[in-house]
Amino acid sequence: MSATAIAYPNIALIKYWGKRDEQLSLPATGSLSLTLDIAPTRTTVTLAPEADEDVATWRGRPMLDRELARIRSFLELVRGLAGSRTPAVVDTGNEIPTGAGLASSASGFAALAAAASTAYGLELSRRDLSRLARRGSGSAARSVFGGLVEWYAGDDATSYAEPLPAQGLNLALVVAVLDPGRKAVGSREAMRRTAATSPFYGAWVQSVPSELTQMRTAITRADFTAVGELAESNALRMHATMLGAVPPVRYWTGGTVAALDLVAQLREDGIEAYATIDAGPNVKVLCRPQDAAAVADRFAAAFAGLDLLISGSGPGVRVEEAR
Ligand code: DP6
């Protein structure tokens, strides 16, 4: 059996930062994101009964040991569910290089979960697919669905994502790739350190549920301003918790601060734009689709040679081919 699946990255508007249970990949809080329509990951999983062990390639090239180990332990999980011991060959790739600053683990593990579960003959509901993807990378639970998506904290059975109805709320995201390099501290280690050492982390865990409630209300009302303000303040709070860690986790560069200044300036100039920042220096700007080109133009004018991507709301994971 062989299956190919395609999944898109997502950007959290209310962030996931820290785990309650590492083994089961259960988050300390719920989170809420927008699935993008750019930079998808396409992954093919082929069962290989004659092979000794799993093989994984990145567009045909061998993977780093660390990445291979993570894929193997995920395949172990799928084999456990399927009652199989057959190794697999995995080939994966992004349409845009991982360096573009969009988390590829969300699209990567959503695509791997869909392709592997199909190749091993599991017929999972979308909910169970989201629970499975969660085990590869937390944020992957959300990339199973398109548009606005909430991922519940819960326990192993109840920690899955679900799409949110968002009538009348049209969102675009302009991604400013200020620094395409690999981040100094991976998000997994950074969230672990924040939870263990930052005195602000408890306040973060306490405040996210009410931020989620406010965000759901803003979405139901299609109140773009409230969605943007909540998203920006949540991202700043997440980075504030990290700055309190020992040693501190600081992803921001001078470019990050300059981009935040520009977003504030855009608002003063009458273009409603709000910033969000993940585990890296890049700034993503939430705006209305009709303003996206103007936002991108202002960034291009302010930062020489900057890579810019414009995204709308994208679809959930899809199995393209199964043989
Ligand atoms: C800052 O989902 O990559 O992007 O579960 O350890 O694989 P693991 O972490 P991951 O973390 C994403 C962190 C974030 C915020 C978010 O997407 O909610």
Walk me through this protein's architecture:
With 323 residues, the chain is an alpha+beta fold. Helix content is 39%, strand content 23%. The protein is built from nine helices and 16 strands. The strands form four sheets. The chain has a six-stranded mixed beta sheet. A four-stranded antiparallel beta sheet has the order 2-5-10-11. β7 (55-58) and β8 (61-62) form a beta hairpin. The radius of gyration is 19 Å and the shape is globular. The N and C termini lie close together (6 Å). Ligand DP6 binds at residues 12, 15-16, 25, 31, 103, 105, 137-139, 187-188, 278-279. Ligand DP6 binds next to α5.
How many extended strands?
A: 16
Mean pLDDT: 95
Q: Biggest sheet, strands in spatial order?
A: 8-7-9-6-1-16
List the ligand species.
ligand DP6
Beta-strand content bin: 15-25%
Biggest sheet architecture: 6 strands, mixed
Rounded to an integer in angstroms, the radius of gyration calculated over CA atoms is 19 Å
Distance between the termini: 6 Å
N-to-C order of helices and strands:
EEEEEEEEHEHHHEEEHHHHEEHEE
Q: Tell the overall outline.
A: globular
Going by helix content, strand content and strand pairing, the class is: alpha+beta
Helix content: 25-40%
Number of helices: 9
Low-confidence runs (pLDDT<50, min 5 residues)?
none
Helices and strands in order, then pairings?
Elements: E1 2-7, E2 10-14, E3 19-21, E4 26-27, E5 31-35, E6 41-47, E7 55-58, E8 61-62, H1 65-82, E9 88-94, H2 104-119, H3 126-136, H4 140-143, E10 148-151, E11 161-163, E12 172-177, H5 187-197, H6 201-220, H7 224-243, H8 254-268, E13 273-277, E14 283-287, H9 292-302, E15 307-311, E16 318-322
Parallel strand pairs: 7-9
Antiparallel strand pairs: 1-6, 1-16, 2-5, 3-4, 5-10, 6-9, 7-8, 10-11, 12-14, 12-15, 13-14
Helix pairs in contact: 1-2, 2-3, 6-7
Bound molecules: ligand DP6.
